[in-house]
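hey so i finaly got around to running the thing on peptidylprolyl isomerase from Sphingobacterium pedocola. pasting the sequence first so u can double check i didnt mess up the copy paste, my clipboard has been acting weird all day
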Amino acid sequence: MKKLFTAVLLLFCIVTQAQKPTHYYVNVSTSQGSAILRLYNETPKHRDNFVKLVKEGFYDSLLFHRVIHNFMIQGGDPDSRYAADRVQLGNGGLEYKIPSEIQSELIHKKGTIGAARDNNPAKQSSASQFYFVQGRKYSQAGLDSLEQFRMQGKKLSPIQRQAYSTVGGTPHLDGNYTVFGELLTGVEIVDKIAVVETDPFDRPLKNERMAMHILTRREAINLERENNGLQAKDDFFTKLFDSFKSKYYNVQ
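ok and heres what it spat out for the 3d tokens, dont ask me to read them lol
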């Protein structure tokens, strides 16, 4: 009986330890709908900072304060939470910056999230301000022209050309800002917010607010299962195992 109990306990520990998501996921709610954001593990400093702020409720009730159609929608200025109408925003932030984590394979395709920054030479990111990429689709001739004139002769990779001619995005931002995640669902909210009427400073005339929360461990596991073509798990034993673990988790 003792050996059986030990074996069951060992199996229980193995199962519960194995149930861990590979990424952090954020639910982004707006007046235009909701989206699920996956944060990249390849940019751990930006990932962990963003998770920390979301858990603290930092982004709840902030505005998308800068919106440019066929380009991007930007938010994360803490001054926007209680800002009066028509006030110019975009200069608020936290007292620290995030070191650059720019990587050539993480590009500004439509639906990605990038970190805003000022003109500091190290390309360090704002600790709080971010943007969702909308951009547009390019023809191959359009990309040739972009290389020649906007990118001063720098050549796009085959991966960039494929993405920007099919999904779309903002290729001229690549190499200048850190991209640290992408929307898995709800990309249409970017399109909806990007076309709202704005003032001369690109602030929407009607406030577009946001709220965010981190998906729980089980929500993240089930999301990953579904993305891999498997059924979400919500049976009795799954709930039993989950009851012994925190609903939150760490990604290394």
